[in-house]
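To close the chapter, one final illustration. This time we ask the reader to focus less on the individual chains and more on the assembly as a whole: which components sit near each other, and how the overall shape emerges from the parts.
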Amino acid sequence: MSAKIDIEFTVNGAVKQVTVPATASALDMLRDQLDLKGAKEACGEGECGACTVIVDGVSVCSCLSYAVDFDGRKIETIEGVQSDEGLDPIQQAFVDYGAVQCGYCTPGMVMQVKHTLDKNPNPTKEEIQRGLEGNVCRCTGYSKIIDAVTEVASS
Amino acid sequence: MNTVENYIAPGSIEEAAAALAAGPVTIVAGGTDLMLQTGSGAIAYAKTLMNVRRIAEMQGVSIDGDTIRIGALTTITELKSDAIIAEHLPVVAEMADKFASDQIRNASTIGGNICNASPAGDGIVPLMMYGADVVLASAKGNRNVALSEFFTGPGKTVKADNELLVAIEIAKPAAGFKGGFGKFGPRPALEIAMASVALGGVVKDGVISNVSVAFGAVGPTPMMGAKTTALLEGKTLNEETISAAGEAASEEVTPIDDVRASAWYRRHLIRVMTEEILNDVG
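The assembled structure is written out below.
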């Protein structure tokens, strides 16, 4: 077993302290130690985006991130997107436009859309597509997802 | 997966160099290559895992006189939008736009992309074309190595185990220098290049000079296109020259058949992309 390291970071506004193996992925740590099961492992190679989380304001694949590197950072996951008032507008648009089918890719999609719109609140269709080029959906054919994002961006 | 006994996250190059001098260390920056390669067993961890990402002096792009310095920890996303890169090294920005996906660009560092030493590494090809040096730091001091002489084979470089790649240094290109980057794969995003080309020069009164050409994914390491460069230098950039340059490029590369493409197809892609860039530049 690799050396275990104590880290402290913020996830969805709450400070967390965990002890992680030096070689563990951030995805495994979030899912297995913090019970945040929203981020998914699908490809495990950075090709599908199902594990996308936001670290210090930028989206990354948590399956390719070292958990130890989260030390001191600010993490946002799908679990923190919904507010007390209800679904985030991105989540609501995914529901309204039928952009969710099996749902496995959805948490990663929503986090990547959030990052894309945070950087560029008025994206063109091409910019929306480019923003999602690292996210794979095998159900929807993408059109409904693009429609949902277009709606959020225009409202 | 083998075990790591120590984890360190130094705050300075000096600290990192001391750790490297003390014994075998696996260096991690963005992690996007290392996590995959240790997971598959292609790379074994050393006893110490060193996360260099907190070293402030290895971050960011700066300009000092005629030298542009890119910190090794600069992410591909930062290269894509950096003002100095956009002004002086636009072919690097063009490469960054074609690199992987947003999530990968946000994590991947240019130093890591170079040290991974993939024959197809996107980040390497335009930097080689611009004549970049890498700065290697160790407890004994710094040395500069031309990027064109840095690679010795797939995954292999002249960087010693006690050295850390801390920055890339590039002399400002000549006034009017214009270039382009071509990369081909089955889809635009998240592809390892089947072949890539970076090419540039100064075109004045229809004549091209200061030519530089580099190729990726067509040999055991990214390579300079010496013959294509020699053919182009000082020539009038017309249809005939462009066609001859495409021919020279496709002949001087040394591709293999593999899972991504045949050698024949790679030569074809090199010819087409070389001609495309020359048409854009001219």
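Chain A touches chain B at residues 1-3, 5, 21-23, 25, 44-47, 49, 52, 58-61, 63-66, 68-69, 71, 112, 115-116, 130-131, 133-135 (CB under 8 Å). The first strand of chain A starts at residue 4 and ends at 11. With these observations in hand, you are ready for the problems at the end of the chapter.
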